[in-house]
Each structure stands twice: as C-alpha cells, then as structure tokens.
UniProtKB/TrEMBL annotation:
This is F-box domain-containing protein. GO terms for biological process: SCF-dependent proteasomal ubiquitin-dependent protein catabolic process. GO terms for cellular component: SCF ubiquitin ligase complex. It comes from the Eukaryota. Coiled coil: none annotated. InterPro entries: Leu-rich_rpt_Cys-con_subtyp, LRR_dom_sf.
Amino acid sequence: MEDLPEALVTEILKRITSTSDLNYLSLVSKQLYKIEGNQRGAIRVGSGLCTATEALTSLCARFTNLRKLEIDYSGWIPEHGNQLDNKGLFVFSSHCSSLIDLTLSFCSYIDDSGLGCLAHCKKLVSLRLNSVPKITSIGLFSVAVGCISLSALHLIDCEKIDSVEWLEYLGMDGSLEELVVKNCKGINHHDLLKFGSGWMKLQKFEFERKRERHDRYIGYDFYDPSYDAHSTDIYDFSCESLKDLRLAHIKTWPEIGLRVVLGKCKALENLWLEYVYALNDNDMIALFRSCSNLKSISLGLNLQRYCSEDGYCETRTSFTDNSIYALALNCPMLQIVDLKFTGCSRDWPSEIGFTQKGFLALIQSCPIRVLVLNTANFFDDEGMKALSSSPHLETLELILCHAVTDAGMRFIAHTPCLSNLNTSGVS
C-alpha cells in the first residue's frame, strides 16, 4: 500500500462508505491516516470526546476538509465526562474553515457566547440546534449577523428563545431558504410573520408548537366556518418559492397568524397540516387554487367546534367536501394522500367533515400513488370497490378503518398497480 500513488489510494478510500471501516483503515499506516483524514468531509462526535483544547485542535488538524460536523450528546449523563463547551466550539469554528453544516444536539454546556463563535464560520450554510437549553435570542442574533452564508436554520426544543429580532434580521437579509421551528415555547406563529420579505426566498418552512396535555381535548372555543382570512391582504409578503410547508399544533383563532401563508403559496409541492385549530374550507380553497404543483398532502384532523352566523353549531373535523373538490379540481399532480382523524367516533361518521363521495371524487381526479387512511370512519366497502379501479394506486395503508370488511378487501385485490398493502384494525 505504501508504494501506491497517493491519488490512487485516495480514489480507493472514496469508494469506502462505512465510517467504521474508514476508522479501521486509518490505523493501518501513517499514509492511510493522513489521506483518510484529508478526505473525510463529515464527523459525528459526542460522549467520549476529549474536550481539552489540545485534543480538539489535533482533531481539527487531522480533518482539514471537514464540511459537516454533528455534536450529539443525547443520552449523556455526568458520569460520561464533560461536554463540549464554548471554548471547544470556538476551536472547531476557528479551525474548520470549510465547515458548511453544523448540528448541536443536547449540548447543555454551550450558551450564547459559544454560539457567537460561529461568526468565524463564514461558509456555514446549515445550522441545527436541537435541545440546546442555554441558547437565547441574543445568540441567534449573533449567528444571523455573523454567518453570512446561512440558508438553513433548524430550532428544536430551544425553550429560552423568546424574541425574534434574529428572525427580522434574517428576513431583511433574505438569504434563508429553510426554516424549521419546533417546540420552542417562546416563539409563537404570529412572531413568524415578522420574517417579512424573507418569505420570498424560503423553500421549506415548518412550525410546530410545543404540545400540552389539554391539546387532546376539544375545548370550549367555537370557530366560524365561513371566516375568510384571505379576502383582504393585510400582510405584504409573498411565499412564491415555498415548496414544503408543515404546520402542527397551532391555534389560528382569533388572530389570523400563519393561516395567511396558505393563501400565498404558488409553488407548494408538499403540505403537512397536523391539528391546526380554526382552519376552514376557505383556507384550503385559497391554497389549492394557487398550488397546481401540489404532489403530497398529509392532514392530521381532530374534532373542533364550529358555529355559523345563523346559530347552527356542530362538532366535526376542520374541512368538508368543499376542500376535497377544490383539491381534485386544482391539483392534477397530487400523488400522495395521508389522512388521519383523531377523536372521531366510529358510531358517528358525520364527525368527519369529508364524505366518501367527496373523497372518491379526489381519487378519480388525481393520479394517487400512495394512500394512507387512519380512522377514516366514512370509508367502507363501497369505497374499496371504487378504489380498486384506481389506475395509479401502488401503496394503500388502512389503519382502524372499521367500516371496511373482508368483502372490501377482496375488491382491492383487483387494483391494477397495487404492490404494497398494509392494514391494521379493519373489521
């Protein structure tokens, strides 16, 4: 091996994808140790990492072309030794000049001071902060100002972030293409509207509110099924680049909040709405009319109370067949449909706003390849019979669809392209 040209050895090592194999090979000779270190572009460290400055400096010197770094202390306990702290993060940020992707998970020793060190990472494109409890808005603002190449930011379970100056700055800068905020209780969905012109370039956006115990209950609020948040444009921004949108566990009433985003998406391809309160058909119709490229939709729907102006009140899921018909009419590229209904009684199919007739209109209008139905009490053997003639259906998953019997399952055996069938809790 020592006699082989370095270029050939490098090419051989490039073909080895297993990290453990590369680690073993690097111990065979000094030549392999050096070449493997120079070409390694990503490492993942955590418990067991020696946090002494000299050791970290040596680590950085070995991996001279490090582009992706993940520091993960999940499962850490004090007996495992010290975690990487602000000084250690400074070593990485000052020595790894090629770093473009950084993930910090469960790093309890790092605070705003350490995060400020990332200003050295002028090439940093992606930053993920997962359960970093000491980080506040001050540290995020220093990242927003210093990391001039940042285009993707993920914030998960960072509970001390309680203001959005950093978000306003990133919005004015307009470079962010991916923003994910989950379980950060100091950030609400109204704050995110302060992103302003930054929405123009954003391609992926996720917001999930931290769940609380009472979320599973219907509650006492009544929502207006005819309310139209899209009749007037009070927010002057566009989401014309947004392709992936996920909203989960948020309340859009009485303030408008993030529901206005639904009427501003023109390039949307993938949509996830999970237990978003107070939405109605007007939100979906506004969305579907502008999203002809929609390919995937996932809805998690629970029971909510709706009361119209004439005093008629009902308890049902958010959307009716009006939404289904708008989806069928305006989204000819739809291929994946995932519907989950929570809290709906099998004895009261009307608690689900959709009917089987409306649902089958969607199936017959769009080239659905993947269909997942969870507790879809409106769907029965007749629906299975109609579904069996779907020319594009490849994957079908039925969970707790109690109205489907063995007779319905026999119909589905004739579906022309079906290759994957999963059932659980059908009669």
